[in-house]
Write a structure and sequence with these properties.
The structure is a homodimer.
Chain A: E1 13-18, E2 30-45, H1 53-62, E3 66-73, H2 82-100, E4 107-111, H3 121-133, H4 140-146, E5 155-163, E6 166-175, E7 188-193, H5 199-212, E8 228-233, H6 244-267, E9 275-283, H7 286-297, H8 300-307, H9 313-321, E10 333-336, E11 339-343, E12 346-347, H10 350-359, E13 364-370, E14 376-383, H11 387-394
Parallel strand pairs in A: 3-4, 7-8, 9-13
Antiparallel strand pairs in A: 1-2, 2-3, 2-8, 5-6, 6-7, 9-14, 10-11, 10-13, 11-12
Helix pairs in contact in A: 1-2, 2-3, 5-6, 7-9
Chain lengths: ~400, ~400
């Protein structure tokens, strides 16, 4: 049950994953998470106007505030599939409902994979009995693996906490890799906890944490049609109704789990070799800080320079200049980690650039930009743009 | 003087280019265009808030409405160079003014190359006498070559026209390649004509043509600090004051020249193997049409799919969905050239995709999107995102 000191289970949750044949390579692609008790549930979803069928179905169901299970698959996004796609998404949960003897309305659903293909219902029908039979408290790592598409490693984070002296856990998994510039949520992430908590506290904690974690990363500036984050709290830790302090502890844990998962998603961005934190401070407004960081984090020229370990600060300046923010070129300072490469809008010279290039050989580094226009700051985590990104995406479907 | 049937000179303009040592490889990098008569002049410049010194200097000077010369260099953008950069930009034109015996205020200046380095004035001083001596009516092609950076071919277009029975020509040159998503102009383009025309007609023709040509292309979504378009009309064709009809003819010619140059810039986009016209129709508003076309044209996922010749329409749908436009997924139709791949938001099946993939093997093709939301349309010309784009930009400075 415990591997390498990381806990991989939470009281009252069972899970498993099987190879249903939705992926082309016989890898596990169909996953189920089941809560022994009805769990308080909250979710956030893509802001893309083109929403996948499972997003539409789950958005309806999450309004009930409770859920018993999450059915997830890779290999088929069930997006741009119209009325038939919606019927298929509901149909798969009907099958699960029958096997588990729970209402279909309490089953959330999430899909990832190629857009524009209907899921093959026969594959679901054939695989589901075996999947339900194998549900196990140790099954979450299998789910983390099954929802991978172009991800190169599974993403799982555990955080132990106490509420009123009672121990509980927060276990999160996620998949990422491509089409990542979440505008409200990110690809897929499921977070399970056994804390007893009311729906409003859970919903607001999720909303706040999404803003500072999944909504602050970018791989390629594209927002998926399927982005989904679910958090399920089944109350099986048996804590008393949480105090303000307990809630603060829970938020801190949730923030940690989601923040780590977000960082893992960037680290595993398609073709990425580096994780870069773009930090903007001294902005005139909160939106200026965010827009400046996003303009730099999404610039293809900046991202290829990161790949080349080239402290090409001119591209960063050009990115800031088109961000639509209040700025004075001659007041901008830029650092790579603690090495200043721009002071007052001007380069700090060859030696500074050499030192910065050295920092850029690391797998993770920061770009810190001080605009000197005000008191607002923000940060976006991005990755480099590499040959492998092009290889992966030029031939993804073939 | 005439090569391959394309005229490469315009009455009264002389030009030449030399290797001043600003580029690393001994290639021509310093160019001068000189008009025997003072020419009516108009210009459009980058909207990037970080503006290169030559942009700032030329913006001041273009307000005088007349110019005698354009000094252009590659190898050094003279951007992010502060007060010293401005002094250098003015200083180089002072040198030219002395050699040509004309006012420095009538010399426009444009630079392209690496951001953040000051131009080496000694190189200018050494090269200018030889450059001025060699000025020739046949020198424009040399200028087109000298302003190239990562461009793989020089870009020149000629258009012959008549005004009131008098023949005149419009000769345009441009450089492009990277940092191309002009927001007001594009990298560098100089357009020379011997028509006699008033300043207001010239200025408004330039402004209108820029909107539908250079402002409708994208290579990588980045807007340069140095984007500049100049048009100089020296009146040496000797036509009478142009009539409305003559002006319409001139606009048509200017539109042709700038449109062809813009298309050449995309064709020669860094690493590009394909030119793709993204056409959006049936949009609810003009801005919806433009935003939809730009979202698709700038999507890294769409551009890599073009490279892979993969009619991955799901990525196009996802791009539309995050464009912030009015749309109904189930009303979207998409074609690759004349092959419909999406009807009513749904894929048209394997056979249609195979036919579309065949179209995508061509060097140029169109994506036509009908949103069925209204009467507005727009088009953006883009290129694919390739391994070579990454190679070129990861190691541009090294």
């Amino acid at each position: 049950m415990e591997k390498q000191g990381i806990r991989q289970r939470v009281n009252g949750f069972k899970a498993w994953a099987v190879a249903a044949g939705l992926k082309k390579d016989d890898a596990p692609d169909l996953a189920l998470i089941f809560s022994e008790r009805r769990a308080v549930a909250a979710g956030v979803f893509t802001t893309n106007k083109v929403k996948a069928a499972p997003v539409i179905v789950s958005q309806e169901r999450i309004n009930r505030k409770y859920a018993r299970a999450i059915l997830a698959n890779a290999g088929c996004a069930n997006a741009c599939t119209g009325r038939q796609g919606l019927e298929a998404a509901r149909g798969t949960t009907d099958l699960v409902a029958r096997h588990l003897n729970i209402p279909a309305e309490e089953i959330l659903v999430a899909s990832t994979g190629v857009i524009g293909q209907l899921p093959n219902m026969q594959l679901f029908e054939k695989a589901l009995p075996g999947l339900v039979d194998k549900l196990s408290p140790d099954g979450i790592p299998h789910v983390a693996r099954a929802i991978m598409t172009t991800d190169s490693f599974p993403k799982m984070v555990f955080y132990p906490e106490k509420a009123g002296g009672t121990a509980y856990g927060i276990l999160g998994i996620a998949k990422g890799a491509g089409m990542i510039m979440p505008n409200m949520a990110t690809m897929l992430s499921f977070i399970l906890t056994d804390i007893q908590i009311d729906h409003e506290s859970l919903r607001s904690a999720l909303g706040d944490c999404v803003k500072s974690t999944f909504n602050r990363i970018t791989v390629d500036g594209d927002t998926s049609t399927n982005d989904t984050v679910f958090v399920l709290a089944n109350g099986m830790a048996g804590n008393q109704s949480p105090t303000e302090r307990d809630l603060a502890g829970f938020r801190e844990g949730l923030q940690f789990v989601m923040g780590e998962l977000a960082r893992m998603i960037v680290k595993d961005g398609e073709g990425a070799t580096k994780v870069i934190r773009i930090e903007v401070k001294g902005a005139h407004s909160a939106s200026d800080a965010e827009n400046a960081a996003r303009a730099v984090a999404n610039s293809s020229l900046v991202k290829t320079a990161f790949y080349g370990q080239d402290p090409n600060w001119g591209r960063i300046m050009a990115g800031l200049g088109r961000a639509g923010i209040r700025m004075q070129e001659e007041e901008v300072d830029i650092w790579i980690d603690e090495v200043q490469i721009v002071g007052g809008g001007l380069g700090k010279g060859f030696e500074a650039e050499q030192k910065a290039a050295q920092k850029m050989t690391n797998r993770e580094f920061s770009v810190v930009i001080d605009l000197h226009q005000g008191l607002f700051q923000d940060a976006i985590i991005t990755c480099d743009l590499t040959h492998d990104y092009v290889s992966i995406n030029a031939h993804y479907r073939t």
